[in-house]
Design goal:
62% of the residues lie in helices and 0% in strands. By secondary structure, the chain is an all-alpha fold.
């Protein structure tokens, strides 16, 4: 549990061996390696979901859905392995795009702008 009041946070549902992968350095490393293959729109969506997941204003259930999508992106176990080049990210892109479209109502202008700036910083786009 997260604290003594028995509050269960979305992070508590993530296996311990996966939690370290959702930290900002791990997120940035994976995005840095694959950003060119993913393309600016997907990178922007990933950043938006990540920032939304980190926001204290995001509802718990929403965070759990986002965590599932981010774990799928970070996971070395995929329906289509990422090592297959552009085809390998097809499933990751589908999951990220689906979850992003479902979370649009929660995206603030601040989160969208942070995602845009982060995408520009990593891709120059």
């Amino acid at each position: 549990m997260s604290n003594s009041s028995n509050f269960t946070s979305p992070e508590d549902y993530i296996p311990k061996f996966r939690r370290k992968k959702l930290d900002e350095p791990g997120f940035l490393r994976k995005l840095g390696r694959f950003a060119g293959k993913l393309g600016a729109p997907v990178v922007r969506q990933l950043y938006a979901l990540y920032f939304l997941w980190k926001s204290p204003h995001t509802p718990k259930q929403t965070k759990m859905i986002i965590a599932g999508a981010l774990i799928y992106f970070f996971s070395p176990i995929d329906t289509i392995p990422d090592l297959l080049g552009p085809l390998g990210f097809t499933d990751d892109i589908a999951v990220i795009t689906l979850v992003y479209s479902q979370m649009k109502a929660y995206l603030t202008d601040d989160i969208r702008e942070r995602a845009r700036l982060a995408t520009y910083k990593i891709l120059g786009k």
